[in-house]
Specification:
- This protein has a five-stranded mixed β-sheet.
- Helix 3 (85-94) links the parallel strand 3 (76-81) and strand 4.
- The chain is built from four helices and five strands.
- Helix content is 39%, strand content 18%.
- By secondary structure, it is an alpha/beta fold.
- The longest helix is centred in the N-terminal third of the chain and has 19 residues, at 2-20.
- The radius of gyration is 14 Å and the shape is globular.
- 41% of the residues are buried.
- The N and C termini lie far apart (38 Å).
Length: 152
Amino acid sequence: MTDDIHYMRLALAEAKGAARRGEVPVGAVLVNAEGEVVARTGNAPISICDPTAHAEVLALRDGAYATGNYRLGGMTLYVTLEPCTMCAGAISNARIARVVYGARDAKGGAVENGVRFFEQPTCHHRPDVTGGVLADVCSDLLKSFFRERRRT
């Protein structure tokens, strides 16, 4: 659990960077089996005009480029918000071993909420999932971001 908190803090730093760029503050960190950070990024759909540029997808892309392999078996993906359906599909296709996320997303999440992607019989690969790591901190960051956006 100590490692999960450490890596989630790194993901939170990426989320804060995304917020500074005007993006929804979601961050992701991809870690290999040896505990080395392979990729770290934040949301960027506005910045790069790409609706698929969620933090998770960008981290998976960067991890694939870094390793020279689109299969990222044995790796753990840390993300500050419960992945959506698109991201859950990408996580499954990449064969990520474990997903650790912070805040739950009752509206857009697809792991514990919504379609529960990894529980579907058509899901080819199911990672181990741990939710709620630094959930309050992750949730507070999102809430304050949207509160500020409503003021302006």
